[in-house]
Design goal:
83 residues; 0% strand
């Protein structure tokens, strides 16, 4: 597995230009990311590499990711917000 992004790089990658994504991703990096295991952290980086329209559709529940690991992270992030 390759080296993971630093926290500052993750924070930067979470700035998406869509408020709906920013309010989900940025707080997760600050409050939830450190609790992930190494594989989940790598999957989160893959999630950040996805296109904004796809992320928006997945997070808003309009579609599901075909990637089970990405979908699991989306559900984790959404469920953290709902609590």
């Amino acid at each position: 597995m390759s080296a993971l992004m630093s926290k500052p790089k993750l924070r930067w990658a979470c700035r998406r230009g869509m408020l709906e994504l920013d309010v989900l991703l940025a707080p997760f990096v600050e409050e939830g990311y450190d609790g992930l295991n190494q594989q989940q952290k790598a999957d989160f980086e893959r999630l950040l590499a996805c296109d904004d329209p796809d992320l928006f559709a997945w997070f808003m529940g309009h579609n599901r990711s075909d990637d089970a690991a990405i979908q699991a992270l989306i559900e984790l992030i959404v469920n953290r917000v709902r609590v």
